Structures are given as C-alpha cells and as structure tokens.
Amino acid sequence: MKNNKIYIIVATAILTIGFLIFSLEKLQVTNFYVKPVPAVVNTPRPVNSVDYTPQTSPPDPTVNSEKNPAESSPSTPSPSNATVSITRANQDPSTKNLNIGVLVYGTSTGTCTLELLQGTYSVITKIAAVTAQSGLVTCSGFTLLASDIPSAGTYSVKVSVGSASAVQNVELAK
Questions:
Q1: Rounded distance, CA 157 to CA 57, Å?
Q2: Disulfide: which of 48, 52, 58, 135 matches 143 by Cβ 3.0-4.6 Å?
Q3: pLDDT value of position 95
Q4: Of 30, 164, 66, 32, nearest to 106 (Cα)?
Q5: How buried is residue 101: exposed, middle or buried, by Cβ count under 10 Å (0-12/13-18/19+)?
Q6: Could you tell me the pTM of the whole model?
C-alpha cells in the first residue's frame, strides 16, 4: 500500500512536469528543441568626415610640388609600396548606407580613392586621406549614403592607394 502511494505521487509529479513543459512550449515562453541564436546588435557606424564638395579656389602650387629626394624621409614609405585590403563592405539594413573599411599596408601617407563600379562603369568616386589610427593605417572609413546609390544590384567596391588596389563585390538593396 505504501509503495502504491509512492508510485502514484511520482507518476503525478512526472505528468505535472510534462504538462508544464508542454504548456510552456505551446505558449512560446521557452523552447527546448531549438538552440537559441544570439541577437544581432546593429551599432551605428561613425559618419565619414571627409569633405566631398568641389574645390572653390585654385590649387596651392606648393601642396603637391616635387621634393628633392635628398630631403625626403627614408622612414616614410611611399604610396607606391602600399598594399590595400578591404576589411568590410556591408550595407546597413536600417539606413541602406554602404560602409567600407580599408586597411593600408606599406605606407602611412597618400590618398585613398574609392570607386563604386557597376560592371566597368564608375558610379561613385570618393577620395580620403590615408590616416594612422591606433597603430593601424586606414582610409578613414568610407560611407556611401543610400541616396548616392543609384539602384539595387551587384556592384564592385574598388579602393586604390597609389598603384595598389583591392576590389570586393557587394549586393546592394535600395
């Protein structure tokens, strides 16, 4: 008789726990069958601070004047020795802006030229300075606004520093 009571209590507890788990699954409070996927956090990218407006005054002839090779510093490599790597070219799902990250190796001077190509046709061209930040040499990070992108489709992102360049294909939504 005592054993029957224990069996009844154990069976009731098992059925109650089973019903509780079933109810939690149906109410979608918990999910014991699927491994949870971590939430994706979209942090806004910093806004590019490069001025893309056309030049209004004539160029200063001393800015790009040739220097005597004896005066140049041997510790600063020239952009002709550079290599370029595109670290990211992704479109922000909320703003549809295209964020491009670039690392430059072999130089810490010069200019980065970004081209957004559709086939062989250059759709957008932007220029930024090569800058050193926290021990890395970058192209200041390019951001193309959604309003600048003409239409959805497959594009190529090409970044050049001196004679070095890198290309990455990207699918853009409008």
A1: 30
A2: 48
A3: 92
A4: 164
A5: middle
A6: 0.54
